[in-house]
Amino acid sequence: MLLNQAALVLIGLLLAAWTLAAGVAILAARARVQRAESSRRNAQRLARMIEESPAIPLLVRSDGRIEAPERLADWLGLERVPQYLSELDTGSQGFGAADLAELTEAVRRTQKTAAPFRMVATPRGAHHALALRGHLADPQVSPGGSALVWVFETSDSDSLAAAMRRQAEREASEPSALMLLIEASPAPMWIRAASGELRFVNSAFALAVGAANADEVVERQMELVEPVDGVTAQDVCARAAVQGQPVERHISATVRGQRRALRVTDVPLGDLGTAGFAVDIEEAEELARTFRASREAQRAILDDLSAGIAQFDARRQLTFANKPFQRIFALDAALIESAPGFERILEAARVSGRLPELRDFPDWRREKVGWFAAQEPQEEAWPLSSGLHLRVVAQPQPDGGLVLIVEDRTEQLRLSAVRDTMLRTRTATLDSLFESVALFASDGRLDQWNRRFASDWGLESDYLDTHPHIQALIRKIAARLKRPAEADLVGEAVRSATLDRRETGGRVQLADGRTLAYAGVPLPDGSGLLIVLDMTDAQKAEEALRQRNEALQEADAVKARFLAELGHEFQHPLSVIGGFAERMRDGLGGDLNEVGKDYVAAILKSADRIGVHIDQLLALSRSEAGVVPVTREDIDLFAFAKQLANERKAAIRKAGLTLDLRGSGASGRVSGDRERLARAIGTLLDTAIAATPSGGRILFDVSRQKGPGGGRARIVVSDNGPGMDETTLGQAISGKRILSDGTLAGGGPEQGLPLAQVLIEAHGGSLELLSEPGHGTAAIVELP
Question: Does the model's pTM come out above 0.70?
Answer without folding.
Answer: no
